[in-house]
Design a protein that fits this description.
By secondary structure, the protein is α+β, with helices and mostly antiparallel strands. 25% of the residues lie in helices and 21% in strands. It is built from six helices and twelve strands. It has helices at 2-17, 50-55, 83-87, 186-192, 196-202, 231-252, and strands at 47-48, 71-73, 76-79, 91-93, 98-106, 110-117, 123-128, 142-143, 148-151, 166-173, 182-183, 193-194. The strands form three sheets. Strands 3, 5, 6, 7, 8, 10 and 12 form a seven-stranded antiparallel β-sheet that branches. Strands 1-2-11 form a three-stranded antiparallel β-sheet. The longest helix is centred in the last third of the chain and has 22 residues, at 231-252. The relative contact order is 0.17.
Amino acid sequence: MTTYVIAVVNVVVLALAGPAPVHAAAPVVLPVERYFENQTLKGFDVLVDRAYHERRRDLFPHNGLRNQFTGFHAGADVEFYSGQDARSEIPVRAIANGEVIYVGTVPGYGGLVVVRHHEPEVVTSLYGHVRLSDVRVRTGQRVTAGQTVAFLGKNFSAETSGARKHLHFGIHKGPALDFDGYEQTREHLRAEWYNPDDWLVRHGAGRDPRLTAATPTSDPTPAPALKVSSASDDAEDTSWLSRIIDWIRNRLA
């Protein structure tokens, strides 16, 4: 009889405890400060062609390292090229836990770091135009979300492949190592790459302030009233437990 009572009590305790806690997913963070606000150059899916280069000769004014890549831009450019930003060290951070799969120089990027992630989904993240002389990670190293992996290269230098100081940030679908900064068709772009802004927002790395609507001065729809627990509610919540205890006592009688 004692064993029977213990079993019943365990059932009651489990019912009161509720479901087992669900562990939070690995965090996702923005790759650089002011990520959304400083996207003043090429965004994801922007078509770059000869006409674009002619209109934006200011991007490569000094050293002749003209970027002749064309196609649909496979990432987002986050600029830090003027004022205090141009003189400051801008750290670049891993967006999530993962493993570094490439550190080196790539034409069009200058310095490039690539990290493979398995959570919250299998992707690779690209961090282009970084200074390789003091990159904080090496190939094969595990990194955590928010860890500094590099610093942005200087304006119009080999570190940035002659471009203004900015981060080219891309998210490639799947585990493969892909350096492409442009795709020749929009269909291939969407098949191989995520829009990094959408991906970051979807995984909780912040809200794009450019898409945040202005807060109205008054809300015509009142918020639903919160339910406040009362003494009668508490009595109703505990009455079923009392009935179970009475039932156990009757079984033991």
